[in-house]
Design a protein that fits this description.
Order of helices and strands: HHHHEHHEHEHEHEH
Largest sheet: 5 strands, parallel
Strand order of the largest sheet: 3-2-1-4-5
Number of strands: 5
Helix content: 40-55%
Low-confidence stretches: 129-134
Shape: elongated
């Protein structure tokens, strides 16, 4: 188990920083003046990631699979709103006493909007481990309290450390209910497949669309944004592949 965990952590590290790894290898090979063909391949990859539409196409290809959530078109036929944790920053939230929601800001805000309009309870799922710089439950609880959301209307799943755990929690505790799933558009396909795998009755409410859906082939010189978008897309595609190969979805 330890070997598997270490291998997974190594794979995550490679995927999360793949652009930096490409760049470092290219620079090293350039200075030692060897493996010219590998240098050319790496240079082409760096250019594609930096300025081409490739990152946008990668994210768009997954985001387009599900339509954006629309609060005005939601029917009343669901029981609870499930908000999935993103990249909340516990350390900064504690240090500055601000709400550092990270990648979950749209999820929480839209989930609360639906809660206020439809009067449905919220399930927030995400780790509250104080050893992590990102984890959901601690920050989410502060958010709900700050905006006067009745604590009796909020259920916190603070044990889930990944998306699969969230759906196992729903299966074990709320299997006979229908859930409105609120998460980022990029993350939604994995949630949808996990819901099907675990027999969860669901409605999708994707938020946080990051790709340029109006002009998917647009070239951009915003290198930092392109690199971030590419690694964001690669992480989710890799997760989908891993879940599929391990028969989780």
């Amino acid at each position: 188990n330890c070997n598997k965990i270490n291998m997974l952590n190594l794979l995550k590290l490679i995927i999360f920083d793949i652009f930096g790894i490409f760049l470092i290898i290219f620079i090293l090979l350039f200075f030692i003046k060897r493996y010219k063909k590998i240098q050319i391949v790496l240079l082409l990859l760096i250019i594609l990631i930096s300025i081409s539409p490739l990152p946008n196409l990668l994210v768009y290809s997954v985001e387009k699979l599900n339509k954006p959530g629309d609060i005005n078109n939601i029917k009343q036929d669901f029981d609870k709103i499930v908000i999935l944790s993103g990249h909340e920053d516990i350390r900064k939230t504690k240090k500055f006493n601000h709400l550092y929601l990270g990648g979950t800001n749209n999820r929480i805000i839209e989930g609360v909007r639906v809660h206020i309009k439809k009067k449905k309870d919220i399930i927030f799922s995400g780790s509250s481990s104080h050893e992590l710089n990102s984890g959901g439950a601690y920050v989410a609880e502060k958010f709900f309290k700050a905006f006067n959301i009745d604590s009796n209307s909020v259920i916190i799943d603070d044990k889930a450390i990944n998306t699969e755990d969230t759906f196992l929690f729903l299966k074990e505790n709320f299997n006979n209910e229908k859930h409105l799933i609120v998460t980022s558009a990029m993350h939604m396909q994995r949630c949808k497949l996990l819901a099907i795998k675990n027999g969860i009755n669901y409605i999708l409410y994707p938020v946080d669309f990051r790709a340029n859906h109006e002009n998917i082939f647009e070239f951009s010189l915003n290198i930092a944004n392109n690199v971030d978008l590419f690694q964001y897309g690669l992480r989710e595609v890799s997760a989908l592949l891993f879940y599929k190969l391990s028969n989780k979805i």
